[in-house]
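Hey, can you fold this one?
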Amino acid sequence: MPSDAREAFAQTSLGAENTAYDVVARLDPEYFEKLRGLYIDGTFERDSALPRKTKELIMVGITCALRASRGVRVHSERALALGASPREVLEAMEVAVIPGGMPGFWLAVETLEAILAAKGQKFE
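Sure. Predicted structure:
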């Protein structure tokens, strides 16, 4: 695990761009370092019962239900990078319809389609 918080966030992002990390690091470096402890060390990079791919799929569902477009994009990209199939990502979005309703689902499926198109990948 990298010792620098910026490097740790970059590594954990798996290539999914989130410029908010840079803004937080610039505005409040001390808080950014503490955020690393919760977000990276305590959640996504922790060796625990749930594999990282499963955690990312859970985050897809949560961000879908919350209609958080950046979160849907970032966590969908990460789940795919970790080996989730487009069908698995879609199913995480479908489960989120129950607590979150259709508007979040519409946002999410359009996001998934855009991600796949940008990668030149078809839904299978």
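The mean pLDDT is 92. Let me know if you want another pass with a different chain boundary.
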